[in-house]
Amino acid sequence: MTETAQRPTAHYEVIIVGGGMVGAALAALLGRAEVAVALLDARPEPVAADRVGRGLPAMRVSALTPVSQRLLEGLEAWSWMAERRVTPYRFMQVWDGEGSGEVGFSAEQAGVPLLGHIVENDVILAALERSLAELPTVAVQLGTRVTGLEAGPAGRVVELDDGRRLSAPLVVAADGALSPLREMAGIPVHAHDTGHVAVVTTVRTERGHGGVARQVFRESGPLAFLPLTVDGDERYCSIVWSTSPEEAERLVALAPEGLARELQAAFEARLGAVEVVDRALAVPLTQRHAEHYVAPGFALVGDAAHSIHPLAGQGVNLGLMDVAVLAEEVLVARRRGIPLGEVRMLVRYARRRRGDNAAMLALMDGFRLLFGTRHPTLTLARNLGLAGVDRLVPLKRLLMRQAIGERGQLPVSCR
Ligand SMILES: Cc1cc2nc3c(=O)[nH]c(=O)nc-3n(C[C@H](O)[C@H](O)[C@H](O)COP(=O)(O)OP(=O)(O)OC[C@H]3O[C@@H](n4cnc5c(N)ncnc54)[C@H](O)[C@@H]3O)c2cc1C
């Protein structure tokens, strides 16, 4: 071992590996409490803040719940996002493309002003990066890949691809669904292929979306038209079409006019004619859940802990809830003088988050299986079920409050 290898070059209170939306939000939460944080990401540059949320919408978007919005407001990121581009939706319409069932949800029925916003991922990340630039205790290091993780005398040591070593009592992996850090920490993951690949693109429709998020469940998988408003024009939607790998391959290879025809037919032309205005991308959908979220001096958050089918738009919302809870536990421990990597504190974080994430993963599986069947009894039950839910306003209110993130004891930063 060389001398440099024995002596870490820099020490922090928390090292966060992965500066996507989830890791950046955690760095902002901790930085606002003056915790010394290193936020490391392999991507070479920050998001080009002067370009995002302008012109044609970016292809990757997220449906953010009102609970996630409150967190981002607290981080002083939301007002900049709202000034760039966020599209509120007050209604959701879900129907069975193979039967007659249909259910509508409104913000009014849920007792809230809005059900959520569709926001481009780049807009969220750029807003968080702007907030981080104001926090003197957060060192953002881009173009830095973590290649190793070890136990050190005072916690954990991470090795970087440029040969440097950093140490901290707590290392948090926010390094995405394939999480190299999860593997380095030896945490097993339960993964199962959903059998779906998501085809993602942006369309312009003949009629405006009217602030409604729409989703049709077809036997091959769900197709979502998520509303986007561009300079006051409501005729844009972000598309997430989950389907079989073969079908996805065929769809992305089509010319824009061909894909538009397929989208229009599958969506029953509910918004009239469809024009595809961006390229189409195929994203494989695997659900994963880490067997446990924590080890001494180590925690998983966001997609590194769980990756979920996007049919209910929950992924990043669950990740933001993870970091709100973890930051709360870290700050309590810090005030009490408890070491930040202390396993009892980390277990409290895991206990508060794992059940909620597991329930959501199971629910997504249930939806996918229920709607992916041609079994006549299940089809009938599905249609009767949707019609029944549609008539039961108190049940709808309960379901909506779950979907918009109002579940259990929320961390203070999200209340
Ligand atoms: C088609 C689709 C639609 C979706 N729609 C929604 C939606 O509507 N609503 C919603 O809530 N969620 C949605 N999601 C889920 C959401 O996109 C993810 O949950 C979210 O992007 C995860 O963020 P993250 O920060 O955890 O991980 P990531 O965004 O994957 O970030 C991980 C970061 O870690 C970095 N990294 C990785 N390895 C290393 C390393 N060794 N060293 C340094 N850096 C490293 C990477 O460069 C990357 O920047 C959708 C997902 C898909 C696929």
Automatic annotation (TrEMBL):
Domain named FAD-binding: residues: 12-329
InterPro entries: FAD-bd, FAD/NAD-bd_sf, Ubi_Hdrlase_CS, UbiH/COQ6, UbiH/COQ6_monooxygenase
Gene Ontology biological-process entries: ubiquinone biosynthetic process
Cofactor entry: FAD
Xref: SUPFAM superfamilies: FAD/NAD(P)-binding domain
Keywords, sorted A to Z: FAD, Flavoprotein, Membrane, Monooxygenase, Oxidoreductase, Transmembrane, Transmembrane helix
Molecular-function GO terms, alphabetical: FAD binding; monooxygenase activity; oxidoreductase activity, acting on paired donors, with incorporation or reduction of molecular oxygen
UniProt-recorded name of the protein: 2-octaprenyl-3-methyl-6-methoxy-1,4-benzoquinol hydroxylase
Species lineage: Bacteria, Pseudomonadati, Pseudomonadota, Gammaproteobacteria, Oceanospirillales
